[in-house]
Design a protein that fits this description.
Blueprint lengths: L1 H19 L3 E2 L4 E3 L2 E5 L4 E4 L4 E3 L13 E5 L4 E4 L4 E3 L2 E4 L2 E4 L4 E2 L4 E3 L8 H4 L2 H4 L8 E3 L4 E2 L4 E2 L4 E2 L4 E2 L4 E2 L7 E4 L4 E5 L3
Parallel strand pairs: 1-4, 2-5, 3-6, 4-7, 5-8, 6-9, 7-10, 8-11, 9-12, 10-13, 11-14, 12-15, 13-16, 14-17, 15-18, 17-19
Antiparallel strand pairs: 19-20
């Protein structure tokens, strides 16, 4: 009974926290645990219906006590579809990240659409030129995708519908629909025949 009330309080707290950042949330928005939020006032953030996030507190044994974090920079976009489940992730949108419907994202996955720092060492020396000269490219994740625990999705990647990404993969290039990929860097494993 106490645990159930505790979870309801966290969900209510998170709804208020997200709404205070002008985040659009759908029906049955649920988050268990604390979430680190860094959302610019000039960004666009939307979560669809039936969104579930587990964050720390051993809610998912694979992510242990890792807290989820979401950062959306100035003029950037984060759109999450319906029926999406996430455990202790780190999502950083500097430009645009779109996650489709019916997507499952495993524990401790990292998704970021920018290099975060300039590739030019002279620009990296100056804080004012470093991040603003980082390369940025949108990430698009299709419908019915499953991303295994501790995977990393990097800038410019498009993941087609019904893709499975094996645990611990680093995805640096786009993946067509109906395929299984895995490894570092992620490579094609096999087609999915339904």
């Amino acid at each position: 009974m106490i645990k159930k009330n505790y979870n309801k309080l966290y969900t209510l707290y998170n709804i208020l926290k997200f709404k205070s950042k002008n985040v659009k949330i759908g029906k049955k928005f649920r988050i268990k645990g604390k979430v680190g939020l860094n959302i610019s006032n000039s960004s666009y953030v939307q979560f669809g219906d039936n969104f579930v996030m587990l964050s720390g507190k051993m809610f998912n044994i694979l992510s242990r006590n890792i807290q989820s974090g979401i950062r959306v920079d100035k003029n950037a976009t984060l759109k999450v579809g319906n029926n999406v489940g996430i455990s202790s992730v780190s999502i950083w949108s500097s430009k645009k990240i779109v996650i489709g419907n019916n997507v499952k994202i495993g524990a401790d996955v990292i998704i970021f659409d920018s290099d975060m720092h300039s590739l030019n060492y002279l620009e990296r020396r100056d804080f004012t030129t470093d991040a603003k000269n980082a390369k940025k490219k949108p990430i698009i994740i299709g419908n019915d995708v499953f991303i295994g625990t501790r995977s990393i999705i990097t800038k410019g990647v498009e993941i087609g519908d019904k893709v499975i990404i094996a645990a611990g993969s680093i995805v640096t290039k786009s993946i067509p629909s109906n395929e299984i990929w895995g490894g570092n860097p992620a490579k094609f494993i096999k087609k999915i025949n339904n």
